[in-house]
Amino acid sequence: MPLRLLAASLFLLLVLPARATSPVAAAGPQPIDPTVTPGTRALLRNLHHIGWETDTIMFGQEFPLSYDKREVGYLDPDQSDIKDVTGDHPAVHGSDFHFLIDKDRHEIFAHTRAAQKAYANGAMVTFDYHWLGKYGGTHNWHEEDAKILHHVVTGDDSSGDVTWFYTSLDQVLRIINEDLQFPIVFRPLHEMNGNWFWWGSRLEGGPETYVKAYRLLVDYMRERTDYVLFCWSPDKALATEYYPGDDYVDIVGVDGYGEGNPHNEHFTVEAMVTLLEQTVDFAAAHGKVAAFTETGYHTWGEIAYHTEQPDWWTRSVLEPILASEKASRIAWVLSWINSHWSGPYTPHAESPEASKAAFRAFHADPHTLFQKDVARLKLYD
């Protein structure tokens, strides 16, 4: 039996060698919403088990079944760049409510179908939300949009901002409850410690406003759906001044790009490992799951890692993480989008052979889990 299948089988039987566990390992983590569906509750327990009690990490990508580097229309959900290279899809399927709300009906259909297919095939599905602001019409910082959450937390609806906030959440809830109807991990208001989003560090009222708004969002959603686990994810630093509190977070994630890229000095491999260790320590102290919620070789333009460092996923991500007992306790790592306008963050069918061969080795490593592996593990049981 190949090593990766052996690892998956042992995990399924719960006989992998025990690792140091979080304080809630014995009883299992409890979701912050006590009324979630059994499948949603099981997903949290299995994510906790993968992170804390096995030596495996799930690999994920944003939009793997509806975008690819060629992007000739929208994909057949049985195809992906990852599958073209490895014969398998990612274990974690990333999506974004912005693409299911604000795009044309054809794209909305493609992304919805892709998320449904990923779940049906046993993958975990996670959503972020590049929330378009009311005034600027973009998720980027805008002077008026930066005031919205302050108006929400103070109850000032004189400009209709409070109404807009909850109406926007109703759109998200409709998708979850009607179109999806399965467990998801939701990362709202992510990378809040950066200055690029309207809910970010230039937000009126700063971290205090952010924390109150995040809590209002969670309270509103968990009263209206039973399918959601909530993930909080700052960028390149733990930024605990923005932490909404243990009653509002199931999963603690962090984002960070560029580790191992020789042209990048602000987020090195060493910085990545340190940040993940800090995140795992924080998750342990608070009884949460830890994850590396976004990463990639670079953050813009055409990405040349497949020629500069074709084994980047192994050399600069997997091996340094596994070398740290703490960092290796993350449940998953997620790569960003491959499309004609993004990336490629992973090899694809037309990548150089050295890049594809290196990623096949990454896929074959017994510590990485892809879709076929997690399908055997039955994350929702």
From TrEMBL:
Residues 33-290 form the GH26 domain. One of its GO terms (biological process) is substituted mannan metabolic process. SUPFAM superfamilies: (Trans)glycosidases. One of its GO terms (molecular function) is mannan endo-1,4-beta-mannosidase activity. Pfam families: Glyco_hydro_26. InterPro entries: GH, GH26_dom, Glyco_hydro_26. Keywords: Glycosidase, Hydrolase, Signal. The keyword Signal applies. Gene3D superfamilies: Glycosidases (3.20.20.80). It comes from the Bacteria. Belongs to the glycosyl hydrolase 26 family. PANTHER family: GH26 DOMAIN-CONTAINING PROTEIN-RELATED (PTHR40079:SF4), MANNAN ENDO-1,4-BETA-MANNOSIDASE E-RELATED (PTHR40079). This is Glycosyl hydrolase. It comes from Synoicihabitans lomoniglobus.
